[in-house]
């Protein structure tokens, strides 16, 4: 399995709707990317309020190639168009992670 980390970077001045991200955006990403090999999508949130990360999304795909195919798919435009509904923070794809 291969993981892609997506971070919403910001601070207390940025709008971020955790409920929307968890209950609407992650299921949307799952629906759109499942045909491309997405296995799971999870949300994690910083334990402290003074973090410069508002959320951490962990997207697990079957292969590294599946991540690239999903990111380059036309359907990804639908996922990205949903972002303004839950945040005005900066979205950063941190990396593709593979097991040691």
TrEMBL record:
Family matches, as Gene3D superfamilies: 3.30.70.100
Transmembrane residue ranges: none
InterPro entries assigned to the protein according to its UniProt record, in alphabetical order: Dimeric_a/b-barrel, EthD_dom
GO molecular function, one term: oxidoreductase activity
Matches recorded under NCBIfam families: EthD family reductase (TIGR02118)
Protein name listed in UniProt: Ethyl tert-butyl ether degradation protein EthD
Natural source organism: Pantoea wallisii
Top-level taxonomy: Bacteria, Pseudomonadati, Pseudomonadota, Gammaproteobacteria, Enterobacterales
């Amino acid at each position: 399995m291969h993981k892609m980390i997506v971070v919403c970077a910001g601070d207390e001045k940025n709008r971020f709707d955790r409920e929307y991200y968890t209950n609407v955006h992650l299921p949307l990403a799952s629906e759109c990317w499942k045909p491309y090999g997405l296995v799971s999508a999870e949300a994690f949130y910083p334990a402290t309020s003074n973090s410069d990360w508002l959320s951490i999304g962990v997207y697990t795909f079957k292969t590294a190639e599946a991540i690239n195919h999903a990111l380059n798919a036309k359907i990804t435009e639908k996922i990205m168009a949903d972002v303004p509904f839950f945040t005005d923070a900066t979205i950063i794809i941190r990396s593709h992670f593979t097991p040691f």
